[in-house]
Structures are given as structure tokens and as C-alpha cells.
Amino acid sequence: MHADGVTRTFQVRGGPDRTALDRVDLELPVGGVHGLLGPNGAGKTTLCRIASTVLTPTSGSITVHGYDVLDDAEQVRRLIGIVFGGDRGLYGRLTARENLQFWCAMNGVPRRDTPGRVDALLDRLGLGSRAAELVETFSRGMKQRLHLARGLVADPPVLLLDEPTVGMDPVSAHEFRALVGELRSEGRTVLLTTHDMAEAQSLCDTVTFIDDGRIVGSGTPATLRALRVEGGVRVRVHDLAEDAHEDLMTALPEEVSGEHDARARHTDLVVAPGSVAEVVDAVVRQGHVSVTTGPPSLEDVYLGLLGRREGTDRGMAV
Ligand SMILES: Nc1ncnc2c1ncn2[C@@H]1O[C@H](COP(=O)(O)OP(=O)(O)OP(=O)(O)O)[C@@H](O)[C@H]1O
Q1: Which of 53, 144, 152, 153 could form a disulfide with 73 if both were Cys (CB 3.0 to 4.6 A apart)?
Q2: Identical fold between 2-225 and 233-295
Q3: Is residue 184 within 8 Å of residue 162, measured between CB atoms?
Q4: 40, 56, 160: which to mutate for ligand 1, most atoms within 8 A of CB?
Q5: What is the whole-number distance in angstroms between the Cα of residue 46 and the centre of ligand 1?
């Protein structure tokens, strides 16, 4: 997939035009899982919608396997399977099997191939035993799996997954990611938007950070993390309550930034490479002896590239 100077503006009633994408250039290789990450309103869905021919760009172009989304929309649609999250695109009053039969018909799958393809997809996605049940009775995870089945009915080489694991419990999300891994090993190209840094780190061959309609960083998770290592090493202080975190931060040099995870009860400090020994020493002096160091996580990279936006609705729950 190749995006060249893609801009998309929306008219807003009674206000200035809103620029959702601003001259976006992006080159994704054939095959692999490619993550698109960014805060709410960054432009991820808009980019996916243009790539899938649902929306036209205001200027610039996107090609998929060499086909232009405007001039060759028909071919692009045949190449791409779209998996949006939530209830969009599923019919609650139909069964899972009927939904897939419908989407097979919409995608031009020959009638004689439809029953076999539908059953194979239902089995593959673990929905075989629920095939005859109404989709409105499905859990969110089951609906997401049905979405993926829908995206696969025409056996497309490219899949766009828009936040596919949002709201899933950890086991369902883990199983879903395993499926995405299988799609990669089949040679498909997957473009995945996600807010889940761990998901991006474990699943994606490349990640692209987008903010305010612009690409702010792109590369493999490892290269992006290595970039950040030049600026800082992650020092994790384990078993730390919120108030102990506050005390710790006041005891550390001002230039050390720290992020507390209340659930995991740890604080991640990003420390300049030359100051690690000094900072670890200061942490231990505060009575916290369970300390590990390592490369920054993708989340650290994300926060480093995009900064924090406190007091706005554009921050991410990470
Ligand atoms: N139809 C529309 N009319 C007006 N503005 C729109 C429209 N669609 C999107 N936008 C605006 O474009 C910007 C980008 O939206 P988009 O949905 O692409 O963001 P996103 O990165 O997918 O966000 P999220 O993570 O919340 O899904 C936002 O400011 C949004 O309000």
C-alpha cells in the first residue's frame, strides 16, 4: 500500500474546515502486519476509509497493489477485506451463517462455493457451534470474530482491521491476535489500527505513529525502540504504590520522567544512558530495591513522540 500526499478535510457546519489527514506519505510492504497508532482523532480511521474506497481523499492518492483507490476502485475493493469493530456491518436479526451468506453474495462468491466457504470460516473462527444463532445474542468477542470472518469471505490478500480487539477480554484478545498471526503466515498484508501498545509490539512488523493527521514516526517496533534508547533507558521500579511513586519522583532529578502504572504497581522512569547508575542508586536509597532496566517499550516511544496531552480528550488510555 502506497499513500502519496494524502489530505482529507471535512466541512464542519458553522466552523472552519477540519483537516483529518495532512499530506500523508506511507509505504507498506506486501505481507506482514502493519500497525497504525495514534490518539483519538488522529486520522487512523479516515486513512483506512480512504484505503478501502469508502471515502475519497481531498488530494493525494493511495494505491493498493498498484491499483488506485479512485481510478481502480473496483479492483481495490476486491483486494481488501475490511474489519471494523463494534456492531457496524453485522445484522443482529440474522444468524452468523446468514450474515456470512449475505456477505458472500455481496462479494460475488459463487453460490456453489458459498456453503463450504461459510462453514470453513465459522469453524476457523471458533463459531461453528453458534452458526445458527442470532448475532444480536453474541458477545462482543464473538462479534469481532464474525467481523473477521466477514472480512475473509472473498479471501482477500489485504485486510484492514480497525481496533479489532477493543473491549475484548484478555483471553479472547490473545486468541484473536493468534488468528492475525496466522493471516500473516498465509502471506496476507494486514493494516491494524490499535490503541494497545502491547498488541502493536507483539504483533506488528512495522508501526506508524500518526498524530493530528500527520505521520510522526514509522519503522519496525525494534528500530523505533532503538531510536528512543539513544534518548533514554527504561528503569522500572517494581512494587510501588501511587503515594510512594509521588515521593520517589520528588527525590529524583527533575529531568527524569516517570510513569506510574497503578494496576501493575510499577513506575517506569526514562533515564539518560549516562545517568542510569546515579538514578538507580537514588531509587535504592529511597528503599525500593526491586529495580530492572531495559529498552523503552513502544509505549515509551509513543509518549516520547507524541507527548502527553493532559486536560484534553485526545490522550490515550494506555
Ligand atoms: N464525517 C466527518 N465529518 C467531520 N469530521 C470528521 C468526520 N470524520 C472524521 N472527522 C474528524 O477527522 C479527525 C480524524 O478522525 P478519525 O476518525 O480518522 O480519527 P481516529 O484516529 O480514527 O480516532 P479514534 O482513535 O478515536 O477512532 C477527527 O478530528 C474527526 O472528528
Answers
A1: 53
A2: no
A3: no
A4: 40
A5: 6
User: Is the distance from CB of 146 to CB of 168 less than 8 angstroms?
Assistant: no
**Closest by CA position to 64, among listed 97, 100, 34:** 34
Cβ(150)–Cβ(89) below 8 Å: yes
Look over the chain and give the mean of its residue pLDDT values, rounded to a whole number.
Answer: 88
Mean pLDDT of 48-67: 95
Contact 317, 195 (CB under 8 A): yes
Lookup result for grid cell 549516562: 274
Of 196, 167, 180, nearest in space to 86 by CA? 167
Cell of 262: 497503578
What is the Å distance from ligand 1's center to 43 Cα? 6
pLDDT one-digit tens code per residue, 84-142: 766 777 899 999 999 999 999 998 899 999 999 999 999 999 999 999 999 999 988 89
Q: What is the fold of 2-225?
A: Rossmann fold (3.40.50)
Q: How far is the CA of 67 from the CAs of 59, 77, 78, 173, 245, in angstroms? A: 17, 10, 11, 33, 53
Q: State the first-to-last Cα distance of the chain, in angstroms, to the nearest integer.
A: 28
ipTM tops the 0.90 cut? yes
How far, in Å, from the CA of 195 to the mean position of ligand 1? Answer: 15
Instruction: List, chain by chain if needed, residues with CB within 6 Å of any ligand 1 atom.
Output: 10, 12, 18, 20, 38, 40-46
Domain boundaries, the chain: 2-225, 233-295
Asked if residue 7 lies in contact with residue 195, where contact means CB atoms within 8 angstroms, the answer is: no
Closest-CA residue, ligand 1 atom 28, reads 41
Q: Could you give the CA distance from residue 122 to residue 129 in angstroms, rounded to a whole number?
A: 8
45 Cα nearest atom in ligand 1: 22
User: Ligand 1 centroid to 221 CA: how many Å?
Assistant: 25
Eight-state DSSP code of residue 165: T
The H or E element that residue 25 is part of is: strand 18-27
Considering the domain 233-295, what is its CATH architecture? Answer: 2-Layer Sandwich (3.30)
